Protein backbone atom coordinates (compact mmCIF):
# COMPACT_ATOMS: atom_id res chain seq x y z
CA UNK A 1 0.00 0.00 0.00
CA UNK A 2 1.38 3.43 -0.96
CA UNK A 3 0.46 6.65 0.94
CA UNK A 4 -1.73 9.15 -0.88
CA UNK A 5 0.01 12.50 -1.62
CA UNK A 6 -1.37 15.46 0.41
CA UNK A 7 -2.75 17.24 -2.68
CA UNK A 8 -4.51 14.12 -3.89
CA UNK A 9 -5.79 13.48 -0.37
CA UNK A 10 -7.35 16.95 -0.21
CA UNK A 11 -8.99 16.44 -3.62
CA UNK A 12 -10.35 13.08 -2.60
CA UNK A 13 -11.83 14.42 0.66
CA UNK A 14 -13.46 17.28 -1.21
CA UNK A 15 -14.99 14.91 -3.73
CA UNK A 16 -16.31 12.62 -1.00
CA UNK A 17 -17.80 15.57 0.89
CA UNK A 18 -20.01 16.45 -2.05
CA UNK A 19 -20.84 12.92 -3.10
CA UNK A 20 -24.08 11.08 -2.44
CA UNK A 21 -23.24 7.53 -1.42
CA UNK A 22 -25.56 4.71 -2.52
CA UNK A 23 -26.67 2.53 0.39
CA UNK A 24 -25.41 -1.02 0.50
CA UNK A 25 -28.03 -3.53 -0.63
CA UNK A 26 -29.80 -5.26 2.23
CA UNK A 27 -29.84 -9.03 2.26
CA UNK A 28 -33.32 -10.54 2.44
CA UNK A 29 -33.93 -12.19 5.77
CA UNK A 30 -33.71 -15.97 5.80
CA UNK A 31 -37.01 -17.46 7.04
CA UNK A 32 -36.77 -19.35 10.34
CA UNK A 33 -37.04 -23.15 10.35
CA UNK A 34 -39.38 -24.99 12.72
CA UNK A 35 -39.31 -28.64 13.70
CA UNK A 36 -42.10 -30.91 14.89
CA UNK A 37 -43.25 -33.37 17.49
CA UNK A 38 -45.51 -36.30 16.63
CA UNK A 39 -48.67 -36.19 18.76
CA UNK A 40 -50.43 -39.18 17.18
CA UNK A 41 -50.11 -41.43 14.16
CA UNK A 42 -53.00 -43.14 12.39
CA UNK A 43 -53.39 -45.67 9.58
CA UNK A 44 -53.45 -44.29 6.05
CA UNK A 45 -54.19 -46.10 2.80
CA UNK A 46 -50.71 -46.98 1.43
CA UNK A 47 -52.13 -47.10 -2.10
CA UNK A 48 -53.55 -43.57 -1.91
CA UNK A 49 -51.54 -41.19 -4.11
CA UNK A 50 -52.49 -38.26 -1.89
CA UNK A 51 -52.93 -34.95 -3.69
CA UNK A 52 -55.18 -32.92 -1.42
CA UNK A 53 -56.41 -33.05 2.16
CA UNK A 54 -58.65 -31.08 4.51
CA UNK A 55 -60.48 -31.55 7.82
CA UNK A 56 -64.22 -31.04 8.29
CA UNK A 57 -66.60 -32.10 11.07
CA UNK A 58 -64.41 -34.85 12.45
CA UNK A 59 -63.39 -36.42 9.14
CA UNK A 60 -60.63 -35.98 6.62
CA UNK A 61 -61.48 -35.37 2.99
CA UNK A 62 -58.80 -36.55 0.60
CA UNK A 63 -58.18 -36.47 -3.12
CA UNK A 64 -55.92 -38.98 -4.85
CA UNK A 65 -54.16 -38.87 -8.19
CA UNK A 66 -52.91 -40.97 -11.10
CA UNK A 67 -55.05 -41.59 -14.18
CA UNK A 68 -57.44 -44.42 -13.65
CA UNK A 69 -56.93 -44.22 -9.86
CA UNK A 70 -58.01 -40.67 -9.03
CA UNK A 71 -60.69 -40.27 -6.40
CA UNK A 72 -62.28 -37.98 -3.84
CA UNK A 73 -63.01 -39.61 -0.49
CA UNK A 74 -64.18 -39.08 3.06
CA UNK A 75 -61.90 -40.80 5.56
CA UNK A 76 -62.22 -41.77 9.21
CA UNK A 77 -59.16 -40.36 10.96
CA UNK A 78 -58.48 -42.97 13.62
CA UNK A 79 -58.85 -45.99 11.31
CA UNK A 80 -58.02 -44.63 7.86
CA UNK A 81 -61.23 -46.24 6.60
CA UNK A 82 -62.86 -44.70 3.53
CA UNK A 83 -66.50 -44.12 4.49
CA UNK A 84 -67.57 -42.42 1.26
CA UNK A 85 -65.96 -41.79 -2.09
CA UNK A 86 -66.21 -41.30 -5.81
CA UNK A 87 -63.77 -42.06 -8.62
CA UNK A 88 -62.92 -39.51 -11.27
CA UNK A 89 -63.17 -40.51 -14.94
CA UNK A 90 -60.08 -42.46 -16.01
CA UNK A 91 -58.75 -39.71 -18.25
CA UNK A 92 -58.41 -37.27 -15.32
CA UNK A 93 -55.43 -36.96 -12.96
CA UNK A 94 -56.83 -35.71 -9.66
CA UNK A 95 -55.01 -33.01 -7.70
CA UNK A 96 -55.93 -30.71 -4.79
CA UNK A 97 -59.26 -30.50 -2.98
CA UNK A 98 -60.98 -27.92 -0.80
CA UNK A 99 -64.33 -27.12 0.78
CA UNK A 100 -66.55 -24.21 -0.17
CA UNK A 101 -69.85 -24.01 1.66
CA UNK A 102 -71.61 -27.32 1.11
CA UNK A 103 -69.49 -28.18 -1.93
CA UNK A 104 -66.25 -30.01 -2.53
CA UNK A 105 -63.98 -28.55 -5.18
CA UNK A 106 -61.37 -30.83 -6.71
CA UNK A 107 -58.93 -29.76 -9.41
CA UNK A 108 -57.01 -31.79 -11.99
CA UNK A 109 -53.41 -31.71 -13.12
CA UNK A 110 -53.33 -31.08 -16.89
CA UNK A 111 -56.98 -31.43 -17.87
CA UNK A 112 -57.82 -27.82 -16.89
CA UNK A 113 -61.00 -29.01 -15.19
CA UNK A 114 -62.35 -28.52 -11.67
CA UNK A 115 -65.08 -30.81 -10.33
CA UNK A 116 -67.61 -29.41 -7.85
CA UNK A 117 -69.37 -32.09 -5.80
CA UNK A 118 -72.14 -31.99 -3.23
CA UNK A 119 -70.53 -32.44 0.18
CA UNK A 120 -73.14 -34.90 1.48
CA UNK A 121 -73.85 -37.02 -1.57
CA UNK A 122 -70.60 -36.61 -3.58
CA UNK A 123 -72.76 -36.12 -6.67
CA UNK A 124 -71.37 -33.89 -9.41
CA UNK A 125 -72.86 -30.40 -9.21
CA UNK A 126 -70.91 -28.60 -11.94
CA UNK A 127 -67.51 -28.23 -13.60
CA UNK A 128 -65.17 -25.27 -14.09
CA UNK A 129 -62.38 -24.72 -16.58
CA UNK A 130 -59.10 -22.90 -15.95
CA UNK A 131 -55.88 -22.25 -17.85
CA UNK A 132 -52.65 -24.10 -17.09
CA UNK A 133 -52.01 -26.84 -14.57
CA UNK A 134 -53.71 -27.44 -11.24
CA UNK A 135 -51.71 -28.72 -8.23
CA UNK A 136 -53.10 -27.63 -4.85
CA UNK A 137 -56.14 -25.65 -3.70
CA UNK A 138 -57.46 -24.09 -0.48
CA UNK A 139 -59.42 -20.97 0.49
CA UNK A 140 -59.27 -18.06 2.92
CA UNK A 141 -63.01 -17.69 3.45
CA UNK A 142 -63.32 -15.19 0.60
CA UNK A 143 -61.35 -16.55 -2.35
CA UNK A 144 -60.00 -19.83 -3.58
CA UNK A 145 -56.20 -20.11 -3.62
CA UNK A 146 -54.60 -22.44 -6.15
CA UNK A 147 -51.05 -23.55 -6.95
CA UNK A 148 -49.82 -24.74 -10.33
CA UNK A 149 -46.31 -26.01 -9.62
CA UNK A 150 -44.69 -22.62 -10.18
CA UNK A 151 -43.72 -19.97 -7.62
CA UNK A 152 -47.11 -18.27 -7.98
CA UNK A 153 -50.38 -18.61 -6.10
CA UNK A 154 -53.57 -17.82 -7.99
CA UNK A 155 -56.56 -16.24 -6.24
CA UNK A 156 -59.89 -17.24 -7.78
CA UNK A 157 -63.53 -16.29 -7.43
CA UNK A 158 -65.19 -19.30 -5.73
CA UNK A 159 -68.41 -19.00 -7.74
CA UNK A 160 -67.12 -18.36 -11.25
CA UNK A 161 -63.56 -19.76 -10.86
CA UNK A 162 -62.37 -16.58 -12.57
CA UNK A 163 -58.77 -15.68 -11.73
CA UNK A 164 -58.60 -12.43 -9.76
CA UNK A 165 -54.86 -12.00 -9.17
CA UNK A 166 -51.58 -13.78 -8.54
CA UNK A 167 -48.95 -13.54 -5.82
CA UNK A 168 -45.33 -14.57 -6.36
CA UNK A 169 -43.90 -16.60 -3.47
CA UNK A 170 -40.34 -15.83 -2.37
CA UNK A 171 -38.00 -16.85 0.46
CA UNK A 172 -34.95 -14.75 1.18
CA UNK A 173 -35.65 -12.83 -2.02
CA UNK A 174 -35.69 -15.93 -4.22
CA UNK A 175 -38.75 -17.54 -5.82
CA UNK A 176 -40.05 -20.77 -4.29
CA UNK A 177 -41.18 -23.09 -7.05
CA UNK A 178 -42.96 -26.46 -7.05
CA UNK A 179 -45.64 -25.26 -4.64
CA UNK A 180 -48.05 -28.16 -4.31
CA UNK A 181 -50.73 -29.07 -1.75
CA UNK A 182 -52.13 -26.06 0.13
CA UNK A 183 -53.88 -25.46 3.45
CA UNK A 184 -55.13 -22.25 5.06
CA UNK A 185 -53.84 -22.10 8.65
CA UNK A 186 -54.58 -19.08 10.87
CA UNK A 187 -54.07 -16.41 8.23
CA UNK A 188 -51.23 -18.11 6.34
CA UNK A 189 -51.02 -20.49 3.41
CA UNK A 190 -49.15 -23.69 4.24
CA UNK A 191 -47.70 -25.23 1.08
CA UNK A 192 -45.92 -28.49 0.46
CA UNK A 193 -42.89 -28.04 -1.76
CA UNK A 194 -42.92 -31.03 -4.09
CA UNK A 195 -40.17 -33.60 -3.62
CA UNK A 196 -39.03 -32.02 -0.36
CA UNK A 197 -39.77 -32.62 3.32
CA UNK A 198 -40.54 -28.96 3.90
CA UNK A 199 -43.73 -26.95 4.21
CA UNK A 200 -43.61 -23.23 3.44
CA UNK A 201 -45.60 -20.82 5.60
CA UNK A 202 -46.65 -18.04 3.22
CA UNK A 203 -47.98 -14.54 3.81
CA UNK A 204 -50.91 -14.43 1.33
CA UNK A 205 -50.64 -10.67 0.80
CA UNK A 206 -46.92 -10.38 0.06
CA UNK A 207 -46.05 -13.91 -0.98
CA UNK A 208 -43.12 -13.94 1.42
CA UNK A 209 -42.28 -17.19 3.17
CA UNK A 210 -42.49 -16.34 6.87
CA UNK A 211 -41.03 -19.67 7.94
CA UNK A 212 -40.28 -23.27 7.01
CA UNK A 213 -41.55 -26.42 8.69
CA UNK A 214 -38.92 -29.14 8.38
CA UNK A 215 -40.52 -32.60 8.52
CA UNK A 216 -37.35 -34.56 7.81
CA UNK A 217 -37.45 -38.02 9.38
CA UNK A 218 -41.23 -38.11 9.74
CA UNK A 219 -41.46 -41.23 7.56
CA UNK A 220 -37.88 -42.45 7.09
CA UNK A 221 -38.69 -45.67 5.22
CA UNK A 222 -40.35 -45.13 1.85
CA UNK A 223 -40.95 -47.45 -1.08
CA UNK A 224 -39.77 -45.17 -3.88
CA UNK A 225 -39.24 -41.70 -5.31
CA UNK A 226 -42.98 -40.99 -5.56
CA UNK A 227 -43.57 -41.42 -1.80
CA UNK A 228 -43.12 -37.71 -1.06
CA UNK A 229 -44.62 -35.56 1.66
CA UNK A 230 -47.94 -34.21 0.40
CA UNK A 231 -51.10 -33.54 2.37
CA UNK A 232 -51.88 -30.91 5.02
CA UNK A 233 -55.11 -30.66 7.02
CA UNK A 234 -55.93 -28.31 9.89
CA UNK A 235 -58.65 -28.55 12.51
CA UNK A 236 -59.13 -24.89 13.41
CA UNK A 237 -61.32 -25.59 16.47
CA UNK A 238 -58.77 -27.73 18.29
CA UNK A 239 -55.72 -26.42 16.39
CA UNK A 240 -54.70 -29.91 15.30
CA UNK A 241 -52.36 -30.18 12.32
CA UNK A 242 -52.32 -33.37 10.22
CA UNK A 243 -49.82 -34.31 7.51
CA UNK A 244 -49.25 -37.31 5.27
CA UNK A 245 -47.74 -38.16 1.91
CA UNK A 246 -48.29 -39.94 -1.37
CA UNK A 247 -48.49 -43.71 -0.78
CA UNK A 248 -47.73 -43.25 2.93
CA UNK A 249 -49.04 -45.91 5.32
CA UNK A 250 -49.50 -43.35 8.09
CA UNK A 251 -51.18 -40.04 8.80
CA UNK A 252 -49.48 -37.92 11.46
CA UNK A 253 -50.88 -35.38 13.89
CA UNK A 254 -47.98 -33.07 14.70
CA UNK A 255 -47.16 -30.13 16.95
CA UNK A 256 -44.75 -27.49 15.68
CA UNK A 257 -41.69 -26.68 17.76
CA UNK A 258 -39.99 -23.26 18.05
CA UNK A 259 -37.63 -22.18 15.27
CA UNK A 260 -34.06 -23.32 15.44
Tell me the strand percentage band: over 45%
The count of helical stretches stands at 1
- The domain tally reads 1
Quantity of strands, as a count: 23
> In CATH's first tier, which class applies?
Mainly Beta
Order of helices and strands: HEEEEEEEEEEEEEEEEEEEEEEE
In spatial order, strands of the major sheet run 1-20-19-18-17
Shape: globular
Instruction: State the distance separating the first and last CA atoms.
Output: 44 Å
From the alpha carbons, calculate the radius of gyration and give it in angstroms: 23 Å
The parts where pLDDT drops under 50 for at least 5 residues are: 1-26
Structural class category: mainly beta
Record keyword descriptors for this entry.
260 residues; mainly beta; Neuraminidase; 5-stranded mixed β-sheet; 4-stranded antiparallel β-sheet; 23 strands; globular; disordered N terminus
The gist of it:
It contains one helix and 23 strands. The protein has 260 residues and is mostly beta strands.
Tell me what the structure shows:
This protein is mostly beta strands and 260 residues long. It has one domain (29-256): TolB, C-terminal domain (Neuraminidase), CATH 2.120.10. It contains 1 helix and 23 strands. A 5-stranded mixed beta sheet has the order 1-20-19-18-17, with no helix packed on it. A 4-stranded antiparallel beta sheet has the order 2-23-22-21, with no helix packed on it. A hairpin with a 6-residue loop joins strand 19 and strand 20 (209-214).
